[in-house]
Amino acid sequence: MKRSGLLSLIITALFTGLILFIGAAEPSGPGDFRSDQFLKSGICSNCHGSSFGEWDGSMHSNADSDFFYQATLQEYGVAAEAQGLSPEFCSRCHTPVGVVSAEIPPLNGSHLSEVSKEGVQCDFCHSVAESEGIGNAPFVLEPGDIKWGNRSDAESSSHETEAHEFYNDSAYCGMCHNIYHPVNNLTLGATYTEWEESSYAEEGVNCQACHMTPGIVGFEENPGKAASTGPEREHVYTHHFVGANAFVTDVMGESRHEKRAIEYLQHAAELEVTAPDSAEPEENVKVEVKITNVGAGHRIPTGVTEDREMWLELTVNDSEGRILYHSGALDSEGKIDPETTVYHTVFADSEGKPTVKLWEAESILSDNRIGPKESVIENLSFIMPENASNPINTKAVLHYRSAPQKHIDELFGERAYTVPVIEMATYPEEEKTSTPGFGTIGAIIALSLGIAFRRRKR
């Protein structure tokens, strides 16, 4: 090849690369927009009353006002200032309008407009034109008269519409439901990735099929109108965005969302118990409990699970009701029996010590959560007392709690809030009831299925 021809090819390649570089979208960042470029969600309710009513009071609508999140955010803010961490890291998912309009920082919310306080609100979601990857909210926004959605035939007298298949894709959820440490890139939550690597993804069951339809597990059609003036549709996505947070929804008085969170928890897992119904004195009695994730398209629990707790309580009685064996109980302070296996993620700080402060996390000490359609087996045993009488009765309960009571007491003061414990599954199966407080077998639990995702694609 002649030198002039080679030079021409190099110049063409460089020029093409420059064009591609210039044309590549960048995630929307602080100061790119003003908050008054986004509509308050109440305006959307004029035509989308059903969707607004479903969203109102949800964890998405309370993403910024969530008291538990706010307490943790203020702790993060102190660390961020001292260590030079990004002040927008958490807020980018919890008040995206506040971040792109540069109303964050400060993290105390004193500069937030009313629309920014709406958390993950209507006009933000429907102004997402594209995404630059998975995790840590790499959204590209185009607020204005055009509202983005999943329907190519949508028409509105109030605004223009633009269809994007992205709105039917789990990757849309993956923008915020995978979380990576802002400095060391450690995976802090990976709900999206857990789904992507599951059989649900292979079968084409996306996030929306479970979290944006009336069904508790799997897709269920929701016929109706997406807008009051629109046509009847065979299916309209719901906007409850239910996960498993029965703690925050309860405290904030959002009983509709609390109830659905409990229903999701109670359809996530099943228990199978193998145990003898009789034994001889001094015999070593063995009990096997199989826990299966039957209803969640991701691990249980999921999201940022350093605080969340799922554990098994096992009680064995003789025919006269005397307790022969008991594990997994809560004491008077709300602490789980220390010998009990707790299913969650344990992060370690720079010294290798466990921490629930995500900004301190530098490694993962353990992660024993249960994947989609996977099972774990717990083997327990006890010696049959001489005075015990047959038959033996065995009861197992799978519990969930959003956070240890001790952590909530440290944040808000002793017993400012009682973290509910929820019975996810029981053996033998029985009608599940929930009562606040610390029962040895039962109460209310809050499992946040919430958020974990695959490393950003670049």
Automatic annotation (TrEMBL):
Keyword Membrane: yes
InterPro entries documented for this protein: Cyt_c-552/4, Multihaem_cyt_sf
Keywords associated with the record: Membrane, Transmembrane, Transmembrane helix
All copies of domain Cytochrome c-552/4, residue ranges: 44-127
Residue spans crossing the bilayer: 436-453
Signal sequence, renumbered to the chain: none
Name the record gives this protein: Cytochrome c family protein
Lineage: Archaea, Methanobacteriati, Methanobacteriota, Stenosarchaea group, Methanomicrobia
